[in-house]
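PROTOCOL LOG
Step 1. Enter all chains and additional molecules of the complex.
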Amino acid sequence: MKKIVAKRNKVEHSTSNTKSVELVLNPKIYPLEAIYAASYAFIDKLYIFLDGDPNSKIKIKLTPKTANSSLNQNSNSLKEEFLNELVNHTLRYQISKENKNLREFILGTALLGSLGKLNPSKDFFTDKDFINEELDKVQDRDETFSNESETAFDDPLGIAVPWEEKFKPHKKRVKSAKRVLKKSKKSKK
Amino acid sequence: MKSKSHKDKIPHITIKLKKDIYPLEAIQKSADAFKHLADMKIENKRQYFIVKLTKVNPEARKLIKDEFCNYVLANIRNI
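Step 2. Run joint prediction.
Step 3. Record the structure below.
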C-alpha cells in the first residue's frame, strides 16, 4: 500500500483548464501499457490524447465527453479517478510481469499432461528443438489416428449410409409398381 | 483574383500522433473506420504520424478529432 501512495505522489505536474486536464507522468513509474489500459477504461467518459516521450515523460490530456458529466463538475475528481485507475492497472501489469514465468510453467505442464508426460524435463521449457520434436510427434499421432478412422470404420447396421442412398427407388421395384397400378386401373374399368 | 471555393475555405483537420505511442496499424485501422466521415491521409513526419482529414462531414466536424484519437487508443488494445 505504501508503494502505491509513493507512486501517486510522483505525478510530476498537472495543469487543469475548465474543460480539460493535462497530466504529465513518468513512464518508469506508470508504464505505457498501464496508461493504455487506464485510458481504455475511461474511453466512454473522456476524450484521451497521449503525447510526449514514452522513455521520459508521457503527457495525457483528458477532456470530458459531455458537459453534464459528473467528472466535469470538478476537474480534480476527473484527474483523481483516472489516476486511481492508472494505479490499478500499473499494479496489475506488475503482477502479470512477475508471474509470467509461473503462468508459462503451469500452461506448459498442462500441455505436457495432455501429451501423456506428467513429469516434464527441463528441456521442455528451454530447448526449442525439443518442443518442436514433441509437437511433431503429436501431429504424426493425430494424422495416423485420422487415417485409421477413415479406413477402419465399421458400420454393420448401415447407420452411416445416407437416407437417399438407403431408400433409393430400385428400377425393378418401380416397374413392378407401375404394372400393379395399370392392372388395378384395368380391373376397375 | 479568383475567389476561393467553399471547399477551399474549410480548413483541414490535422492530428499529430506520436510514433512511439500510437502504432501505425492502429491508426490505419481507425482511418479505415472513419473514412465515411472524411478523407483520411496518413503522413510520416519525424517522430509523428500526421493524419490529415479533408472533406469532413460537417455534422462530425466538432467531434471527429477527439473521437478518432479515442478510436486509435481502443484499437491499440485490439491489435
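Step 4. Note key features.
Confidence is low (pLDDT under 50) at residues 1-17 of chain A.
Residues 75-98 of chain A form the longest helix (24 residues).
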